Amino acid sequence: MTIFYTFIFLPLISAMLVPLLYKYFNRIVHTGWFVLLVPSSIFVYLLQYIPGVAAGDTYKYTLSWIPSLDMNIVSYVDGLSLLFGLLISGVGTLVIIYSIFYMSKVREALHNFYIYLLMFMGAMLGLVFSDHLLVLYGFWELTSVSSFLLISYWYERKSSRQGALKALLITVLGGFGMLAGFIMLIMMADTYSIREMIANLDVIQSHALFIPAMLCILLGAFTKSAQFPFGIWLPDAMEAPTPVSSYLHSATMVKAGIYLVARMTPIFGGSSVWFWLVAGIGIITMLYGSLTALRQTDLKAMLAYSTISQLGLIMCLLGVGSLAVYFGPGESGTIFTVATFAALFHLFNHSTFKGSLFMVVGIIDHETGRRDIRYLGGLMQVMPVTFTIALIGGLSMAGLPPFNGFLSKEMFFAAVNDVSQTGIFGLSSIGILFPIIAWVASIFTFVYCMIFVFKTFGGQYRPEKLTRKVHEAPWGMLFSPALLALLVIFIFFFPNVLGKYILTPALTAILPMMPMSPYDLKISAWHGLNMELVMTIGVIVVGLLLFKTTKQWIQTMRSYPQKLTLNHWYNQGLSGTERLSVSLTNRYMTGSLRHYLIYIFSFFVIVLISSLLLLHGLQFDFASNAAISIFDAGLVLGMVIAAGTVLFAGNRIVAIVALGALGYMVSMFFVIFRAPDLALTQMVVETVTTVLFLLCFYHLPKLTKSIERIPFKLTNLVISIAMGLTVTLLALSANGHKLFEPISSFFENAFELAGAKNIVNAILVDFRGFDTMLEISVLVIAGLGVYVFIHQRSKRREQNEIE
Amino acid sequence: MKSNDVILKSVTRVAAVIILTFSIYLFMNGHHHPGGGFIGGLSMASSIVLLYLSFGIEKVRENIRVDFKKLSAIGVLIAVATGMVSAVFGKPFLTQTFGHVDLPIFGDTELASALIFDTGVALAVIGTAVNIILSISEDR
User: Can you tell me which family this protein belongs to (chain B) (predicted)?
Assistant: First the structure.
């Protein structure tokens, strides 16, 4: 167990070492070489789970965190989490090798980069292995935060900051929705564990909150996985360094939403709402992404939209696959089980070819200084290796043999054809739309893949349009994409190795109720001449025609009005919200301290008095009170006089001194009631605050020269009387109630428990030590705050004087 | 604080020593009698403030070369570190312990880990109080 958690938390732990390594070794060794050890060792560690998981075993580990609240880091290794764990650590290893050559050792703040990257890696691993819903949510938000930090890595650029903000706003919005959904799920199932929820399906599915919880959770999944219409953050996230785009925004993080949908399929699958939302939004996203990718001239933006489109494809397959839950074991069920299998297969394939394509774009950007296809062309002659990799990745994405994309694309076509022939959920009438949209979107996919590969590498080589001398990338940058490209081909020829050891166990995790026969899940390149093959041939023919005639239609596509894009609406919405919030905030944040005190005190009075009245707490019991002695009466009299002096003083010094006197008299009360600790504290605090008051007094504007009273304000009077009354009533009625057994008897054992004769001190440093620790932290933070505020102000004033 | 106030200065010379001694007494005594880190720290801070008031900031700074911002941070770190130590020994965070030791001169003495925690509290309080007062008074 310890070993498992050591490896899962290895990225987070080693992130702490990165600054040291950067500081002392970066001049000699690129920090990336040290970081490389982390994902590679995790990958090797996770590999040893494959035989067990493939044989149907699962592993459960528990690390207790807050056991009293049932908050524990419960991890569960099954096929699905293992698939993701391998992807995260495997692609992570390749991306870090690539980044060592991509990120300059001299110019870049490498320690920041690797800390964020490791933070993301740790969060993502925690997410996929977590069985506890709230822990999963915590890691989910941590991935959003680290993605934000990585997108804004080059924070001097405005577009980086804006892209990061957009990604954060959208994904965190979805995250909140998801949290609400999780809480509903927890309420329904009365457990935090996903495993136990799947075991108690009946309770959840018959509950009234079933649909709201589903919608909320899907909001989280769709925002994270950039589904329509939330996908607009992904293209802007391309401002991040390319290794980040390739890792977070194509291979791993954007697949967290897919992971969540797959995880929740046993719970929500089989419902018509789930099917329509997941499959419907998925296929619309696929069409939207591929259509918008065509319009892009920036290679990275094109890949971003293509990622959106491919994620839509996977989402759609998962939606179709959820029908298996509806049909249950049987012939129809098996057909849709295969759709889920195809989703997993395409997920893996997408990580391989899209990862390599992103790295290719990074190479082009790095070597030519350009990412715009209008300036590129003919790079085939100067960068033959890069071209080969791009060709393999591009054709795989287009769905051509002999590359792995062909296999999963065929399975996708098969799945949508099956859907159109299913008569449930109203599919008999409009189900035919699924294969049509899928086919059209695939044509667009084919065309942009061609544009990507041949507009960049084919055609005329025009060195005059490029800013630097172009040559082939160093071997280190080629290594990772080349390895991925080899994998693309390898999987085409031996898909069943992957299918048997990785994908089938993952499928078992998504659809535990379905019996799997190895025969159904066999992937083969040749199915005979069937509908799917005809569709693929159609895609190629129409796609080639469109590609040949690109010049005729591409300008029309690019002149699509900016006002009708989702981005435009997002910007409008954002600035509208900002305006609204500014005007609303300005209404009450007037800058007047008096107003703020009025808000605070009236809120205090209203809440306390109304709860006192509503809860019938207004009871007095004077029976056990001690008799009032002459000292008490005298002190009260003195306090009233001091308070009156504060009110009617014409001079601020008099008021402050009178306030001090009032405080000293309160400490006398502590003396009378035999609380020497409190008396001492009150006395010293009173002394120090009086000094503080006198210092602040220096900064206040002078009262009017003629000595006159501060003008009378009725609001002040009402609020101060109400405040005094509230506190008095509260104190008196608190004395009249004894709802619970007093806990003071516990503290009386201070000498036995803490070895201290002074109970007050024992409470402060021992029994309630946590409180004290946080209190002094707050105190120090406040002190530093005062220091910073004042020093910044005087610094600014000095600068003004110099100017 | 420009005025040349002889009486104040002469009194402060004696009083500061007494207050400082008393504040250390309050701090050390806190485990069994009234006192403790908070009170001890605050009264020490008030004696330092008294020095500032009577001798001026520059002169005192020359003689007490302590960065009070760092002092307060060190205090919090000490307090958190004592919590960590108990966690290292497998106990819940911030568990305190005590024991009796026979020291040569003092005889049977009680040593409590709470005293280390209290030192952190005292340093944080001294640092913060002096820091705030210094910042405000320097802002001219």
Answer: Belongs to the CPA3 antiporters (TC 2.A.63) subunit B family.
